[in-house]
């Protein structure tokens, strides 16, 4: 018997429906592969750029030891910096960088933690809404503005207070203190807000005061995040160039105290890189300073990852 057109219509409709579904699935698969391809391409470009930067700085930095045959230990421990005369002791800049970095972190951390506690545990909503834009404004101010303020305010103040030229590690510390304060404060606020709320509720339910709860419960739980914030602040202070250069004095000598002029790795790089010829000992020595900066940046990143991993393990326990 021959099938009528009415018998064929349901089968045709079902076939068209399956065809439409297959078409949509094929189109979604193509879009998925296209999205993955674009993502992998972007990731590959980023990896290539980072690897190129690492290779470029490393190859330039080790030229001092491979081409100019400078002893690595003498370079790190030497105290005389005069590349034009063949003396390239980097110890004064290394000491200056660590001195301003640790001093700025030590001064900024109590203020940052106190501000973060006030914003998360004490201040009303109006206080939080007022402090948050102020902190964000400090982040957005360019480094050169901090340097000019330090040059016009901090240096004359230190000159009047302790004598001398006013340039030195202490002046750079005050400038970096203001610069790293918003970074440490913002990350500390995020760490305190990430503490589970039931920690605070359980402490208060057991009869602890608000300060006991903050100091013995909330701060302890947020310690890994606070340490990460401090490390990030130190990383920014260690790599700051322009603002420090304007107030530290740029004297490549071993600092005797906090008020004596000094130099950092970044300030020496910015002042000397434009006056050298590529391939010469002065140029290679500056690239070696840049390599030290790169290694310190990698060290700070590794330290942040280690603290974060230990924090996760402590929370799991």
From TrEMBL:
GO terms for biological process: phosphate ion transport. It is a multi-pass membrane protein. Residues 94-304 form the ABC transmembrane type-1 domain. Pfam families: BPD_transp_1 (PF00528). The chain crosses the membrane at residues 37-57, 90-113, 134-155, 167-189, 217-238, 285-308. It comes from the Bacteria. GO terms for cellular component: plasma membrane. GO terms for molecular function: phosphate transmembrane transporter activity. Keywords: Cell membrane, Membrane, Phosphate transport, Transmembrane, Transmembrane helix, Transport. It is found in: Cell membrane. CDD domains: TM_PBP2. The keyword Nucleotide-binding does not apply. Its main location: membrane. Part of the binding-protein-dependent transport system for phosphate; probably responsible for the translocation of the substrate across the membrane. Belongs to the binding-protein-dependent transport system permease family. CysTW subfamily. This is Phosphate transport system permease protein. It comes from Levilactobacillus namurensis DSM 19117. The lineage of its organism: Bacteria, Bacillati, Bacillota, Bacilli, Lactobacillales.
């Amino acid at each position: 018997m021959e099938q009528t057109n009415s018998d064929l219509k349901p089968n045709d409709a079902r076939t068209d429906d399956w065809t439409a579904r297959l078409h949509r699935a094929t189109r979604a698969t193509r879009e998925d592969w296209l999205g993955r391809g674009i993502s992998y391409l972007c990731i590959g470009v980023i990896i290539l750029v980072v690897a190129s930067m690492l290779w470029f700085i490393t190859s330039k930095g080790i030229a001092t030891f491979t081409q100019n045959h400078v002893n690595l230990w003498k370079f790190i421990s030497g105290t005389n910096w005069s590349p034009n005369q063949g003396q390239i002791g980097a110890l004064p800049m290394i000491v200056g960088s660590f001195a301003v970095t640790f001093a700025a972190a030590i001064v900024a951390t109590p203020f940052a933690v106190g501000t973060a506690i006030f914003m998360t545990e004490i201040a009303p909503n109006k206080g939080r809404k007022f402090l948050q834009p102020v902190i964000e404004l400090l982040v957005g101010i360019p480094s050169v503005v901090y340097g000019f303020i330090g040059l016009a305010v901090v240096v004359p103040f230190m000159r009047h207070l302790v004598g001398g030229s006013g340039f030195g590690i202490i002046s750079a510390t005050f400038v970096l203190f203001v610069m790293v304060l918003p970074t440490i404060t913002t990350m500390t606020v995020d760490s305190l807000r990430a503490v589970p709320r039931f920690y605070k509720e359980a402490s208060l339910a057991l009869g602890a005061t608000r300060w006991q709860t903050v100091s013995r419960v909330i701060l302890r739980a947020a310690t890994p995040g606070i340490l990460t914030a401090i490390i990030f602040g130190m990383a920014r202070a260690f790599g700051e160039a322009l603002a420090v250069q304007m107030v530290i004095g740029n004297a490549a000598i071993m600092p005797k105290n906090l008020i004596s002029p000094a130099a950092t790795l970044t300030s020496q790089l910015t002042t000397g890189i434009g006056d050298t010829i590529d391939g010469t000992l002065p140029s290679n020595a500056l690239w070696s300073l840049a390599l030290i900066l790169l290694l310190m940046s990698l060290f700070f990143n590794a330290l942040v990852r280690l603290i974060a991993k230990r924090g996760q393990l402590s929370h799991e326990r």
